[in-house]
């Protein structure tokens, strides 16, 4: 009987280790909020992370639905891009003062109070700039929010200033759906799985396109076969980071210039 007992204990420990060693991926769905159809992506029965644009017709409803399903909600904060594309309302731009940056972030988070972190919508120009990124990270630290760098530019300063201000940060590894063909989606998905198997974690960003929705609906159930676990983005953060929704922290008071 003792042998059986210790055998069971050993088997349990080995199972726990195997579970702990299982590669993990997080998939962030950006650009949630403009279309009613975005709610279909939110409702998929998998722990996707939903990054919601502020000041959009279906943003608050999408965020509330995701929160009710115990999914992670992020603020998809518009930031100035090099290509001068339209950013939508409430964007952060290079010419803003420190107070304007803080006000824009505060108003966006008031619109999406379930957000526990932020990632950049576009931002190929803004994330390269020292002072604006320093102000941004200063504010996120005061609100206890993390940052995921979408890496729309290889010259991003996000990680540098996140570290300087003590903001928990992560970075995107793969864009799933820049090309919406089935072959391209599959290629990017396989790259995501390869990175996860090699490094234990990987982060992808996708969008609420009908093709992406159908692809994820078909392929996410097969992750177990690959020995990979889909997790919420918060599960990839450092253990010391306390996850807090923006609506449960007081807006940061402006500090002296």
Number of strands: 9
Q: Shape, please?
A: globular
Q: How much helix, percentage-wise, in residues?
A: 25-40%
Q: What would the average pLDDT be, to the nearest integer?
A: 91
Describe, in plain words, how this protein is organized in 3D.
This protein is an alpha/beta fold. It has one domain: Alpha-Beta Barrel (TIM Barrel), CATH 3.20.20.370. It has helices at 2-20, 38-43, 59-68, 98-111, 130-142, 158-165, 182-199, 210-219, and strands spanning 24-32, 49-52, 73-79, 117-122, 146-149, 169-171, 174-175, 201-206, 229-230. Strands 1, 2, 3, 4, 5, 6, 7, 8 and 9 form a nine-stranded parallel β-sheet that branches. Helix 2 (38-43) links the parallel strand 1 and strand 2 (49-52). Helix 4 packs across helix 5 (130-142). It is globular and about 50 Å long. The relative contact order is 0.17. Residues 1-19 have low confidence and may be disordered.
Outline:
The protein is built from 8 helices and 9 strands. It has 257 residues and is of the alpha/beta class.
Strand and helix layout:
Elements: H1 2-20, E1 24-32, H2 38-43, E2 49-52, H3 59-68, E3 73-79, H4 98-111, E4 117-122, H5 130-142, E5 146-149, H6 158-165, E6 169-171, E7 174-175, H7 182-199, E8 201-206, H8 210-219, E9 229-230
Parallel strand pairs: 1-2, 1-8, 1-9, 2-3, 3-4, 4-5, 5-6, 7-8
Helix pairs in contact: 4-5, 5-6
GO biological process, one term: carbohydrate metabolic process
Protein name: Divergent polysaccharide deacetylase family protein
Signal peptide: 1-20
């Amino acid at each position: 009987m003792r042998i059986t007992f210790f055998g069971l204990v050993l088997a349990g420990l080995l199972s726990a280790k195997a579970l702990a060693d299982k590669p993990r991926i997080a998939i962030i769905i950006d650009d949630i909020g403009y279309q009613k159809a975005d709610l279909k992506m939110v409702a998929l029965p998998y722990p996707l992370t939903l990054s919601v644009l502020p000041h959009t017709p279906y943003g608050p409803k999408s965020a509330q639905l995701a929160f009710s399903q115990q999914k992670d909600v992020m603020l998809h904060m518009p930031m100035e891009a090099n290509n001068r594309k339209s950013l939508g309302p409430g964007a952060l731009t290079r010419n803003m003062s420190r107070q304007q940056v803080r006000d824009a972030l505060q108003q966006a988070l008031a619109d999406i109070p379930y957000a526990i972190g932020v990632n950049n919508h576009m931002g190929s120009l803004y994330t390269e700039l020292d002072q604006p990124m320093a102000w941004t990270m200063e504010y996120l630290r005061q609100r206890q929010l993390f940052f995921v760098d979408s890496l729309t530019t290889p010259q991003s300063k996000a990680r540098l200033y996140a570290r300087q201000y003590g903001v928990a940060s992560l970075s995107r590894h793969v864009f799933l759906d820049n090309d919406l063909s089935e072959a391209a989606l599959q290629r990017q998905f396989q790259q995501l799985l390869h990175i996860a198997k090699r490094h234990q974690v990987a982060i992808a960003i996708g969008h609420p396109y009908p093709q992406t929705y159908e692809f994820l609906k078909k392929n996410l159930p097969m992750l177990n076969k690959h020995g990979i676990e889909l997790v919420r983005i918060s599960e990839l953060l450092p253990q010391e980071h306390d996850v807090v929704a923006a609506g449960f922290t007081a807006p940061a008071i402006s500090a002296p210039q």
